[in-house]
Input
Amino acid sequence: MELNEEQRKLVEAEPKGVALIKGIAGSGKTTVALHRALFLHRQYCINDDRVLLATFNRTLINYLQYIYQGIAEKYKEGYANLFSSSQDRVDIMTIDQIIYHYYNENLQEESIKPLYMNTIANQTIMECIRDLPKQYRNINFLGDSAFLQDEISWIKSCGIREVEEYQTVDRIGRIRPQGDDAPQRLPKKSEIRQVIFNTMIDYDRKLEEQGYIHPREMAARCLVHAKANPSNKYRHIIIDEGQDLTRVQLEFLQTLYGDADGYSFTLIMDIAQSIYSGAWLVKGHSLAS
Output
């Protein structure tokens, strides 16, 4: 994993707040992320300062940890540690792992656990559909359980907590599978948005009665708690595959660093690769948003 000159400049740049690094597939973005984590750890961490390398894809996490250890050994002399002890202070985790641990430590109720079983999710949304008043049955796609689950997931991914916000927000980024007749855009201030939001509330209630919480709802609750109780746990945060993260995930990660001189928050991404409907940094959403 030798760095070229352009990559080395990115890796060894002085940390100054928020930074965005873009690159196409195969350009070495993950290599830069790994080297950057090591460099910041060795050169810009003091005492108990920590570095977080977060990624979206859980299948890559073991590979990233393995490669990082190899880089750390190879560059032990090149990135001599100026400030911190020799103890490893770089955490490599998926965003889902980070949020799950945060939820367990701060919010979890013993009787409620995250829902990862599609059968229960499907059964519950179908119960919600059956409970819809008859006057809404003329809206054809309200019977489409996949559409409703996708839209509920999107609402939660954006951190939308009130129906008034959902009624006025631009619905950007919906990805329609082949054969999906549901609309890609929903009219603002419409009956359909009101019904969808009400269905989401009913869905959450039914899940909780069964002892479950939607993973995106879990993340949204963690964000609310983290904003009220910022931890400043990390001096430097690097996000690989940033194009796939939701707004809630991005804002949650921001609560974990100090946002002061000498701290940094680096987002590494390839917009062209994003395939998730809940991803925030799609066309129409800037990093500033």
